[in-house]
Predict the 3D structure of the following.
Amino acid sequence: MTTPPLRAAAVLFDMDGVLVDSRAAIDRVRTRWAEKHGLDPKVVIALPHGQKTRDIIATLTPHLDVRAEVAWLDADELRDLEGITAIPGAARLLGELRPDEWTVVTSSGRELASRRLAAAGLPVPDSFVSGEAVSQGKPAPEGYLLGASLLGRQPAECVVIEDAPAGVAAGIAAGMRVVGLTTTYPRAQLDGCTVIVKDLSKLAAERDGSRLHLVLRARD
């Protein structure tokens, strides 16, 4: 079945699991942190993706100094870029977009986001929304609303591409349509997405007059 194109003026990408495959690096960092505190690495690895580190720590280990633990995890993530690659289709899709048609909205810090994109061989947008730029992380809509503002677009003009339930919820709460990727979570956990596909190889960008629209290449 052919899926109608999603018409939009801008595309807001999450980073990890959407543009960049950093799962192995994230799992290694989480394992080291778990072992540091005598926690079960399997439990820590299974914690939600797509949320700010401080929010995860505050929920799992509220007795710890959240600021100190975030600093430790951030530093370890900056050191561990081994095996980071681009998600299939990411380089091609970004190459089809003009700089003012896309940005990144990530829970990662600005330096880490820049390093992971570079490690994957992907361009770093001139301006993007990192974890430090917002007071409330995903699933709050603040990051996506800021991303639309940076591009000079209204929320209804934007399409969000996400791989995690928290990010999907953030995009929907921001009043945007969301394309879900099953790179991290199964389809059943990406509730509310307008379209769900395997990865970015299933999307292509074309232009309709002065507006951008995404076109699904194929259904999963």
In short: The CA atoms of residues 37 and 64 lie 10 Å apart. The first helix runs from residue 23 to 36. The mean pLDDT is 90. The chain has two domains: 6-22+84-216, 23-79.
